[in-house]
Amino acid sequence: MSPRTRELIYLVLVGVAVAAAYSTMYIAQSKVLDYGSLAWGGVFFALLLVAHLATRRFVPLGDPYLLPAAGLLCGLGVTEIQRLTPDLSGRQTAWLVIGMIAFIGVLAGLRDHHVLEQYQYLIGAGGVLALIITVSPLGHEVNGSQLWINFGPVNIQPGEFAKLAIVIFLAGYLAANREVLGRGVSMRHLGPIALFWGASLALLVLMNDFGTSLLFYGTFLLMLYVATARAWYLGAGGLAFAAGSYFVYHAAAHVHQRFDIWLDPFKDERGAGYQLVQGLFALADGGLFGRGLGQAFLVGANGNTLIPDAQTDFIFAALADELGWVGAVGVLLIYVVVAWRGYAIAAQAQDGFSKLLAFGLATTFALQSLIIVGGVVRLLPLTGQTLPFVSYGGSSVLANFLLIGILLVISHNTYAAPALRARADVRAQGEAGRKAVRT
């Protein structure tokens, strides 16, 4: 069975599952099943089919699991957003369409991902510039963090795209200098990468976005370790992280408060700890199998969600309330599939840049998922990160579709290269045979 046929089978199953979930939620809320809810399922499956046709055309040898996993997460996300904040579900669907278009654009336009390596410095500088614009007067502050740029009715979060740019730069630079850095600490070669990384972290601190700072830091350390195989970098980085966390805890009131909430959310359960406390109640209320889609008590009579920002920061808690711990673990397993396939693509890649790029993208995706879920279940302090593909947010959906697209291109090129070499050898042998006949 070809990769694309396998992908199509999974996409059909995803389409049926999402349509059933959306209809179940709609019936629980409205007590009727109308054509509108069924039509949404049809539109969603049509989007998946268009994306599949693009993968069949441009990356026929690409990984068959990434697109179905991303589609299933998107479908669950839109379903739960419709449940929590119906006014936002239309916007999320629109961003899903835009994300699919961007995904197809990556497949069609980035036929050889090594082009990114040639422009690594320009791409990295673009990521830093995006963060600079965010902290400029053009930036817009929400909930104490300056993360957004407004373009009329549309809000863009540049940090979501900056993380991709920084990973591309790190992959290119580390691939070129891995041997030197692997022999020991060389400030001449470590300097440029430390400068880019340090500038990014400093800007994120100015933005008061410590969740993305943690994401950047973790991705940088793990990519550096994989490139050099020197545990010294991990040890030194861990000590630097501990020292930095101690300093930020005492210097930044916003971070201080989040740590205090994490340690004892019930100390101020009606105030600063209210969101986390309500999220914990939702996790407990769902039990093993959940209340059922559309049936948990998540929205008050006034239309407001009982968990503040449930559609963004705490959508995992809402899903756990309705699907139970069994369903919540199932959602986590979908994230594991995406990360697993990303790491598998990295392991199978034939060159250093491809390996590091796939590893960095998979690590970014995995760490972001871990950070937000860890905050919801109180394993980590809250950071305000979005849950990839599920939480409400157009920038996040768009950036993660770009990420999946790049991984598929790397996967396809990894398998296509031997086939192309084999065809070239056959053509060369045929040409040699024809010359021998003529002589």
Overall description:
The longest helix has 45 residues, at 394-438. The chain is globular, with a radius of gyration of 23 Å. A three-stranded antiparallel sheet has the order 1-2-3. A hairpin with a 2-residue loop joins β1 (139-142) and β2 (145-151). The two termini are 44 Å apart. The chain has one domain (3-438). It has 15 helices and three strands. It has 439 residues and is mainly α. 75% of the residues lie in helices and 3% in strands.
Please give a quick description of this structure.
This protein has 439 residues and is mainly α. 75% of the residues lie in helices and 3% in strands. It has helices at 3-30, 35-58, 66-84, 86-109, 115-118, 120-135, 158-183, 187-206, 210-228, 231-251, 253-263, 274-286, 315-348, 352-376, 394-438; strands at residues 139-142, 145-151, 154-156.
